[in-house]
Amino acid sequence: MKEALDFLNKIVSFQSVSTDPRKEKEIFALVKILKNFLAKEKFKVKIIGKKCPLFIAEKFVSSKSKTIGIYSHYDVQPAEPLNLWHSDPFKLTIKNGKIFARGVADNKGPLTQNIFSILNLVKENKLKNNIIFLFEGEEEIGSRNFSFYLNQALSILKNVDLFFLTDVGMVKKNVPTIYYALRGIVYFEVEVWTGKKDLHSGVYGNLVYNPSQILCEIFAKMKDLKGKIKIPDFYKRVRRISDKEKKDLIKNFKNANEIKKIAEVYTLNPLDKKYSLISAKIYPSLEINGFYSGYIGEGSKTIIPNYAKAKFSIRLVEYQKPEEIIDLVKKFIKNNIPKGIKYSLKVLVNAKPFFSDFNHPYIIKTAKVLEEEFKNKCVFMREGGSIPSAEILMNKFKKPVILTGFILEGSNIHAPNENMDLDLFEKGILVLSKIYNIDF
Ligand code: BES
Ligand code: ZN
User: Fold this and answer.
1) Least distant ligand from the CA of 187
2) Which domain holds residue 139?
3) Do residues 397 and 250 touch, judged by C-beta distance below 8 A?
4) Which of 38, 40, 325, 422 is 20 to 30 Å from 213 by CA-CA measure?
5) Measured between alpha carbons, how far is 54 from 74 in angstroms, rounded to an integer?
6) How far apart are the C-alpha atoms of 299 and 332, rounded to whole Å?
7) Do 42 and 164 sit in the same domain of this protein?
8) Entry pTM
9) Which of 330, 351, 372 is the last residue of a domain?
10) Are 402 and 164 in contact (CB under 8 A)?
């Protein structure tokens, strides 16, 4: 266990922030650490791509054994705002039974668990299945090259019988959870120019358009305050989820007070009467992720800005197609921008939703081991977050992709003070050893 924590300590010290081009060196250095470490443990390593490469490491046991592909990502989100961290985000800190650092939950902790679950089996001479680690470096920026990189390793990957992804959590501590659905995502950046410079709001108020107003109106037309998306045809492909499924999901999920406490929000937004608590799991959603326009410095400045910019993203559920949604949004913005106004709309991320059959025999076997180890019934859940690689792997190789993991909801992924439960970090390694040694 100490070795696993030392390893995690080492890898969190590299600021592998994929969205920040200034962090390229940190990423190379981290990949080198992974390479040296696994090569020493007699894995065959292959590194594909230049910028945020895909790292592959193989351990072959026998041609009679099944081959398991184990996915993790080594890139992380930016640590900012730094002043809200209680400890250095790039140094492992253990406090009150939790490990703190950027990426410790998403996804370097689980990556470490994957490595050590296999190393422990190797050490005891017990490893039964062939193992192929796939460590991605672009997950947090939408896995743009993942499919392309996989194509360069087809000769290795064609042998994989099933994939595991442990970039997810448990609904509650020690309640093992398998995720059978993830939402997809399309992410946009929109800019509006009404002219070349800011203008005096007294001299020009009423005479010219205000770019901030234009974006506000567009957003208000796109979605109402409750969360219903109003872009024409947006829900066209969304299918009704059965009441049985919704009831199962809500039964296993948190209640309103638990959600409020974890999220530290003052109130919840009821999208519908019955299933609002699981609305981030079962419905699509649209969120403005950032908005900028005009003057927000000290005091007052009476201007009409000439420019506004916003970032917004849409989470998609099964059967919705990112390309189709992108077209609907393009059309919507074009139709709702006043004539003569300049604008640009860019698509930054595009990932399909993931939806799988949770009655597959490999999943049943995995659930059984999870139940034995945690002494609790395994919960089958949907996740509102996105992991583009899950759908890409499933679609490309037509093999089961099983999602399970040990991150708790209060782990602050993407936020300050990201953490992982120390018990679950340790227990997870033991449990994964059992899972990866199943006779599939
Ligand atoms: N680990 C998360 C996905 C996740 C979120 C799992 C919540 C469990 C609970 C993953 O690293 C992530 O953050 N994905 C991004 C993908 C996007 C940038 C394409 C996301 O969902 O925003
Ligand atoms: Zn993430």
Assistant:
1) 1
2) 2-182+353-435
3) no
4) 325
5) 10
6) 36
7) yes
8) 0.95
9) 351
10) yes
Each residue's pLDDT expressed in tens, for the chain with a length of 440 residues: 899 999 999 999 999 999 999 999 999 999 999 999 999 999 999 999 999 999 999 999 999 999 999 999 999 999 999 999 999 999 999 999 999 999 999 999 999 999 999 999 999 999 999 999 999 999 999 999 999 999 999 999 999 999 999 999 999 999 999 999 999 999 999 999 999 999 999 999 999 999 999 999 999 999 999 999 999 999 999 999 999 999 999 999 999 999 999 889 999 998 888 899 999 999 999 999 999 999 999 999 999 999 999 999 999 999 999 999 999 999 999 999 999 999 999 999 999 999 999 899 999 999 999 999 999 999 999 999 999 999 999 999 999 999 999 999 889 999 999 999 999 999 999 999 999 999 99
Widest CA span in the chain = 81
State whether 192 and 140 are in the same domain. no
Atom of ligand 1 nearest to the CA of 185: 19
Dist. CA 110 → ligand 1 center (Å): 14
Spatial distance between the Cα atoms of 26 and 102, rounded to a whole number of angstroms: 14
- Render the burial of 286-313: b for 16+ CB within 10 Å, e for the rest: beeeeeebbeeeeeeeebbbbbbbbbbb
Contacts 24+ apart (CB under 8 A), 325-332: 325/186, 325/234, 326/186, 326/350, 328/231, 328/232, 328/233, 328/234, 329/186, 329/188, 329/231, 332/218, 332/221, 332/222, 332/231, 332/232
Q: How many domains, in total, are found in the chain?
A: 2
Same domain for 53 and 201, yes or no, is no
CA 302 to ligand 1 center in whole angstroms = 41
Do 13 and 111 lie in one domain? The reply is yes
For residues 309 and 169, membership in a common domain is answered with no
Q: Rounded to the nearest whole angstrom, what is the distance from the C-alpha of residue 106 to the centroid of ligand 1?
A: 8
For a ligand 1 pocket test, name from 387, 401, 403, 408 the mutation site with the most ligand atoms within 8 angstroms of its C-beta: 387
Centre of ligand 2 from the C-alpha of residue 413, in Å: 6
**Whose CA is closest to atom 17 on ligand 1?**
142
Question: Any idea of the CA torsion for 96, 99, 102, 104, to the nearest 10 degrees?
Answer: -140
How far apart CA 139 and CA 166 sit, in angstroms, is 13
| Alpha-carbon radius of gyration of the chain | 23
Give me the residues paired with residue 315 across strands.
185, 285
Cβ < 5 A residues, ion ligand 2: 106
